[in-house]
Inverse folding.
């Protein structure tokens, strides 16, 4: 039997249930992965809180990324064999001891990567790559601002940009983390320092993960022909509280952009929701392939046994995490 | 004495006056150009109609681009000598027999370019370059839509993209012009054909010059991570009629873009107003320099003697032009 973690209905840590279901046989180009680790993402928490518009109907199993070993092959699988160490992106359902996935969602885990590292790659890497190189098309010589510089995504962006001749400025909520950023080659500012210094401007690219009123503030700091890419609304979710009112206020506080203002400002604005790319397997698979071109190994903070999933969520919600948080199935 | 064409106040062809004023001596890094030809641009017509928000107070002399010969040098000029054949971008004032400009706005006219060709380059080239390569960052393999494919700007975009491995689709208002576009390697559609065929989609980049409701229609045709760059509102100006009501309607019909929708669509929107780049001489000069990297020679339709400036404007307004229209000062 397979163990699956479901979210029964929106709520706090008690919203989870662990169920068992029968193994499925792979068909066509599907393969079965015995899951070692599942990555936890911020979007999972927003879904548990009932605030994620794209979530499936309750109950459902969240989870976008896993690592493990291939145990069964559908008749049309060509690139894998039983026993391969792999990582994979999932369109939900990654919080499970076994997953059945089409071959294109699965990639070989490099020999020098641990299963922990593999489970923490996919979401951050795809978001970073699509944001930086497909939408923003950041290039050497650009000046870039990352508003979530100390998180998994921000850290990865830094590692993908600095070796390619990009100047990276990073924001953090904590003065104590500035030193860490500076060591990585990032020019670091607390949010307060940044908003109080109007000379920090002229950015070619800004990654905005906070949403709400921060979008307009960041937009004002773009240089000529600069672009801002909005990837979420992390400021809606605080300290484990499911705040529908706060989320609503955030949606309403999102500025609207008129093309006439964009013309006068010579600027651009993008949005990204990596989940939607599952509609286009070829595109998504080609982007997943590129992780080997970068030093993309994620920093792992901690793996919680799968039975402690609610502890794992609250660890992230309480901002205790200093790297990727995982669920362990072994 | 220098002859200068002014727009006295908003109106039809009678809005022009030709005045004389004394020569000015160049100071600092300025130089004097004896103007051979002045380029006429669509924005000049919108200004004459009184519909251009960035126009100086009336009366003023319009004109963004000229060609001619250097006749005097300020003491700090380093790159030019008297007698040099040049082309230049002007921040207004190009409708004149002589102009005084800072050196950075002036570029050498290549030996195999005529003065006519030189006077028709700057506005189209800067708009094309900034739109395609600074904002849109179009790259090899992209699929691109140009909504003004037969005009000076659209023609230049085509010549800058197709040799670089970009697939170009072009819109034209006239079925008769499709053949011309196809000969240049553009896949051509009339506006009607395009809007009626919902399979024409998946664009990585769309150049929108029409504004208004066309922006939303074009936006819907973008592919994943695609971008639209809005550069104007040409559909507001028709057949020489100064239609304030029409312009107002167009402004009001501009869609507004919410970052949440942009996220769900994985798309971006930019605006461009090349005029604003005069605030940043170094940036603009570096872009003007790049014209020699492309086959950027403009197709010249016709040069009107400067005294026939109102005929020249109405020739463009009546959509008779098949290339660049100039004023001749010789």
């Amino acid at each position: 039997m397979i163990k699956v973690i479901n979210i029964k209905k929106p709520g706090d840590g008690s919203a989870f249930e662990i169920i068992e279901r029968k193994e499925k046989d792979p068909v066509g180009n599907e393969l079965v992965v015995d899951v070692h680790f599942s990555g936890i993402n911020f979007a999972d928490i927003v879904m548990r809180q009932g605030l994620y518009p794209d979530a499936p109907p309750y109950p459902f199993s969240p989870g976008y990324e896993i690592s493990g070993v291939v145990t069964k092959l559908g008749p049309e699988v060509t690139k894998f064999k039983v026993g391969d160490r792999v990582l994979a992106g999932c369109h939900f359902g990654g919080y499970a001891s076994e997953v059945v996935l089409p071959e294109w969602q699965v990639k070989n885990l490099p020999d020098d990567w641990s299963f922990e590292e593999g489970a923490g790659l996919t979401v951050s890497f795809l978001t970073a790559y699509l944001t930086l190189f497909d939408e923003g098309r950041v290039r050497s010589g650009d000046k870039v601002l990352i508003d979530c510089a100390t998180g998994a995504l921000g850290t990865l962006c830094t590692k993908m940009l600095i070796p390619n001749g990009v100047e990276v400025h990073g924001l953090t909520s904590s003065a104590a983390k500035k030193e860490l950023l500076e060591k990585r080659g990032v020019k670091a500012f607390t949010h307060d320092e940044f908003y109080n210094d109007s000379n920090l401007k002229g950015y070619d690219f800004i990654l905005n993960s906070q949403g709400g009123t921060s979008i307009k503030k960041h937009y004002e700091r773009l240089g000529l022909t600069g672009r801002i890419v909005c990837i979420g609304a992390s400021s809606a979710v605080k300290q484990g509280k499911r705040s529908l009112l706060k989320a609503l206020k955030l949606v309403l506080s999102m500025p609207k952009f008129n093309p006439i203002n964009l013309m006068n400002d010579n600027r651009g604005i993008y949005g990204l929701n990596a989940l939607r790319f599952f509609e286009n397997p070829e595109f998504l698979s080609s982007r997943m392939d590129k992780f080997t071109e970068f030093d993309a190994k994620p920093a792992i903070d901690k793996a919680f046994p799968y039975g402690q999933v609610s502890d794992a969520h609250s660890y992230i919600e309480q901002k205790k995490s200093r790297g990727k948080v995982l669920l362990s199935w072994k």
